[in-house]
Amino acid sequence: MNGLVITMIVIAVIIVLIVLLLAVVTTSKAYKYQHTVDPITEKPAGKSDENSIADLDEEEIVEKEHIQDEERKDPS
């Protein structure tokens, strides 16, 4: 009985060490991975997103926000 308990503890410790080793290897590979980002492409000057407020002046922005608020209140 005593030998069985020791064998089970040794097997459990080996399993824990294997899991720990796999976790360290996986984390190490994750930190080495180089993420890439696609380059930003410029929009053609003639085309503008109708929902974009980047090209509007301050009065137009306020007006557009007011229209959007009204649409939220009465979506019909």
Q: Descriptors for this entry?
A:
76 residues, mainly alpha, 0% strand
Number of strands: 0
User: What spatial form do the alpha-carbon principal axes imply?
Assistant: elongated
Look at the helices and sheets and give the structural class: mainly alpha
Mean pLDDT: 82
Query: Uncertain segments of ≥5 residues (pLDDT<50)?
Result: none
Order of helices and strands: HH
Strand content: under 5%
Number of helical regions: 2
Helix content: 55-70%
Q: What is the alpha-carbon Rg in Å?
A: 31 Å
Overview of this protein structure:
It is a single chain. By secondary structure, the chain is an all-alpha fold. It has two helices and no strands. It starts with a helix and ends with a helix. The relative contact order is 0.05. The model has no long low-confidence stretch (mean pLDDT 82).
Short structural summary:
By secondary structure, the chain is mainly alpha-helical.
Question: What is the element layout, followed by pairings?
Answer:
Blueprint: H1 2-32, H2 58-73
